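Researcher: Please translate sequence to structure tokens.
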Amino acid sequence: MKEIVILSGKGGTGKTTVAASLAALASDAVIADADVDAADLHIVLQPRTVEQHEFRSGHVAVIRQADCSGCGVCKRHCRFDAIKAVEQNHGQLTFAVDPSECEGCGVCVRVCPNRSIDFPERVNGEWYISRTRFGWLVHARLHPGAENSGKLVTQVRSVARRLAQQQRARLIITDGPPGIGCPAIAAISGADVVLIVTEPTVSGAHDLERVLALARHFDVPAFVAVNKWDINPDNAALLEHRAAALGAQLLPRIPFDSAVVNALVNLQPVVQVGPSQAAEQIRRIWVELTKWLT
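Model: Translation complete:
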């Protein structure tokens, strides 16, 4: 069983567009969307949810208002200014925790003289197992402002691997998050190959070098495909030259193609909506990747 992780170094390069098409071209793959902060692969694949689970990570303080004496000890010890004063109907002053400010350190729980502060696990999002017309999809949704996206990425990949073993699938196609931070690190570690989708812009070239460095750090073979290469052919050539110098293997370029827009508007992978230059190049990319995987 092999895993392809598709990264970009930055948002907007067409990473998910390519991932959706590879999912359509694969015959027995399990698909994972590891971009848990802004997952959108499901928009194109239109899955039917089979399982839904809470993602719990860390803790949040909750003050029981009926038991709060209003002494303010918790507020004085909170270094994150997460505890606010609340005036009750009869003028009594109590305190409440702003969950968006709470860092889950637990100091207030320790210092409360009345033991009126609970410390439950924080529900930071949900993860799903869904069925698509191309196979199983494992995806997730992190709540706005919630933390530990790297841990949720690890959960998604772990479930996808377990599901692939159960289904005896030969391949996992993972749509990774943009950037090179914690979520991207959680997505690339332990992968068999990384496909980097980039674009011929200054920011695209800069972020490509950063994500290639990440791949080298984890000793994961890297392939590079330049999307929308014809919007700046000179930059595309320079970008490919730099990628090759950094040890990446080059894949066929993908042109700027209105067929991609039409496919996404109709919630379809571009390889599923008839002949186009972009679809043909993505098919060539798939052929080159399968040669390496076999």
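Researcher: Any highlights?
Model: DSSP finds ten helices and 13 strands in the chain.
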